[in-house]
């Protein structure tokens, strides 16, 4: 007897050959790999957006810090200028006091028989000129300058000339000992 049967199984449920199974496995695997690649692409895109946002925020912060540093640099230059001006003023004030002290010191070395016609004190350099009634007064002046502790003996330059029988003209130039250390 021959039975006519109805095949209720779908094609996919029917037993498959070896090659058909490899084909089905490959196609399913390819679908899963494609899904994984799409997920990786979406994750990469989201990470790119995340890090791009962080990078922009970092650039903004750096620009803000740079602008603050530039503002501080302007303030620092102003402070340095004020400090320099203050230092120069204090130096000028001390030089003024020092100049007055040095002037008194130089005048104390000049004997009373000498009349000064020129007195110049330029920082640490002294130039004086004058007249005297005798060579003894000029010798006393030169000796006073040579024996002075605050003056550099090597820098003393002198000259004399007789203007008349009673007047002898002289020039004297010298430096204070600390002339090089102050400049």
Features of this protein?
183 residues, alpha+beta, four-stranded antiparallel beta sheet, 3 helices, 60% helix, rod-shaped, disordered C terminus
Structure write-up:
By secondary structure, the chain is of the alpha+beta class. The protein has three helices and four strands. The chain has a four-stranded antiparallel β-sheet with strand order 1-2-4-3, with helices on one face. It is rod-shaped. The termini are far apart. Residues 179-183 have low confidence and may be disordered.
A few lines on this structure:
This protein has 183 residues and is of the alpha+beta class. The chain has helices at residues 18-109, 135-147, 179-182, and strands at residues 114-122, 125-132, 151-162, 168-176.
How far apart, in Å, are the first and last alpha carbons?
133 Å
Which structural class is indicated by helix and strand composition? alpha+beta
CA-atom Rg in angstroms: 51 Å
**Unreliable stretches, pLDDT < 50, 5 or more residues?**
179-183
Give the helix proportion (percent range): 55-70%
Task: Write out the strand line-up for the largest beta sheet, numbering strands in chain order.
Answer: 1-2-4-3
Enumerate how many helices there are, as a single number: 3
Could you spell the SSE succession in H and E letters?
HEEHEEH
Shape verdict: rod-shaped
Major beta-sheet overview: 4 strands, antiparallel
Number of strands: 4
Mean pLDDT: 84
Which percent range describes the beta-strand content?
A: 15-25%
């Amino acid at each position: 007897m021959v039975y006519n049967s109805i095949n209720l199984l779908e094609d996919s449920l029917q037993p498959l050959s070896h090659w058909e199974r490899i084909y089905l496995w490959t196609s399913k695997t390819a679908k899963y790999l494609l899904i994984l690649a799409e997920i990786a692409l979406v994750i990469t895109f989201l990470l790119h957006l995340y890090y791009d946002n962080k990078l922009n925020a970092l650039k903004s912060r750096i620009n803000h810090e740079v602008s603050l540093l530039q503002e501080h640099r302007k303030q620092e230059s102003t402070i340095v200028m004020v400090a320099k001006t203050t230092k120069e003023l204090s130096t000028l004030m001390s030089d003024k006091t020092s100049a007055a002290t040095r002037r008194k010191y130089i005048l104390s070395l000049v004997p009373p028989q000498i009349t000064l016609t020129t007195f110049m004190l330029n920082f640490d350099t002294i130039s004086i000129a004058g007249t005297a009634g005798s060579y003894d007064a000029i010798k006393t002046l030169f000796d006073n300058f040579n024996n002075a502790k605050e003056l550099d003996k090597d820098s003393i330059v002198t000259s004399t000339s007789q203007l008349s029988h009673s007047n002898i003209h002289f020039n004297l130039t010298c430096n204070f000992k600390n002339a090089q250390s102050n400049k």
